[in-house]
TrEMBL record:
Family: Belongs to the FPG family.
Keyword DNA damage: yes
Residue ranges of domain FPG-type in the record: 234-268
Name of the protein this chain belongs to: DNA-(apurinic or apyrimidinic site) lyase
Cofactor section: Zn(2+)
KW Zinc-finger (keyword) present: yes
Organism: Actinomadura litoris
One GO MF term attached to the UniProt entry: double-stranded DNA binding
Segments forming domain Formamidopyrimidine-DNA glycosylase catalytic: 2-94
Keyword field: DNA damage, DNA repair, DNA-binding, Glycosidase, Hydrolase, Lyase, Metal-binding, Multifunctional enzyme, Zinc, Zinc-finger
Enzyme Commission (EC) number: 4.2.99.18
Length: 272
DNA sequence: GCGGAATGAACAT
DNA sequence: TGTTCCTTCCGCA
């Protein structure tokens, strides 16, 4: 689940449960013991997300930086918090809630200024009000790298992952292998706008749904279906199945060690 | 019960 | 390009 929309939800949840309040912090697993000790007893001033990075600002101007990677997961609950189940890297407790973090790629304490360094190496985030698509365009329009690779590069665009990249390219009818510099500025604008809409909906719903109403199984007279990842999508993990729009066969290929999915009919070679 | 895959990215080579 | 981190879940015995 951890694409950018998930992390923005997590930030909102932290803000709601812990924002402006003193928090307790422990690391039952032990791998964040020193950091937890430094956090424990401080006021959590605010929670924020940039792309897939969660940032918890503390009263002493340091920040907890969490990146979930593929496996990382949060579970929230009330108080009293039960005995931690499994390997809990960080448990926060507030006035009425607790949050358990397991399996993150990153869980570290950043010194003041560390957040700026982090954000400087990230591209614009379609979910943020300060996200500037022009910044991404300056990278995209100058490279031969395929657009499908660029969309996964967090220094180009921060937030989209493997599902959103496949789905937005399908929805905009773009050939995934099209070099960035062959993409038109108009098409990039459409991709950015679509990402903003899709991901905002993902934040609201807590799942990734990308299928337009006229293409849902119901509208097409097929039995309703929800994918294993918890949403309704056009091409992601649907290799070998018929395209929901044209009936052609959805294809997959490995790109930079990730599986890319697309419909060669709706996204013909050179289209961009 | 086991093996593989998974919504990610840093690092080594 | 390959390795590693680290956890969960699914399909297959």
């Amino acid at each position: 689940m951890p694409e950018g929309h998930t992390v923005h939800r997590l930030a909102a949840e932290h803000q709601r449960m812990f924002g402006g309040r003193v928090v307790g912090a422990v690391s039952p697993q032990g791998r964040f013991a020193e950091g937890a000790a430094a956090v424990d007893g401080q006021v959590l001033e605010g929670a924020d997300a940039h792309g897939k990075h969660l940032l918890l600002r503390l009263a002493d101007e340091r920040s907890v930086h969490v990146h979930l990677g593929i496996y990382g997961k949060y579970v929230f609950g009330g108080l009293p918090a039960p005995e931690p189940v499994g390997v809990v890297r960080l448990r926060l407790t507030g006035e009425a809630h607790h949050a358990d973090l397991r399996g993150p790629n990153v869980c570290e304490l950043l010194e003041p200024g560390g957040v700026k360094l982090l954000r400087d190496r990230l591209g614009p985030d379609p979910l943020r009000a300060d996200g500037d698509p022009g910044r991404a365009w300056r990278r995209i329009s100058r490279t031969r790298t395929p657009i499908a690779v660029l969309l996964m590069d967090q220094s180009v665009v921060a937030g989209p992952g493997n599902i959103y990249r496949a789905e937005v390219l399908f929805r905009q009818g773009v050939d995934p292998r099209l070099p960035g510099r062959r993409l038109s500025a108009e098409r990039w604008g459409a991709i950015w706008d679509d990402l903003a809409v899709l991901m905002a909906e993902g934040v609201r719903a807590g799942r990734i749904d990308t299928v337009r109403p006229e293409h849902t199984p119901e509208a097409m007279g097929r039995p309703p279906r929800v994918d294993g990842h918890g949403g309704e999508v056009y091409v992601y993990r649907r290799a070998g199945q018929p395209c929901l729009v044209c009936g052609g066969v959805v294809r997959t290929v490995e790109v930079a060690s990730r599986n890319l999915f697309w419909c060669p009919v709706c996204q013909p070679p050179g289209r961009g």
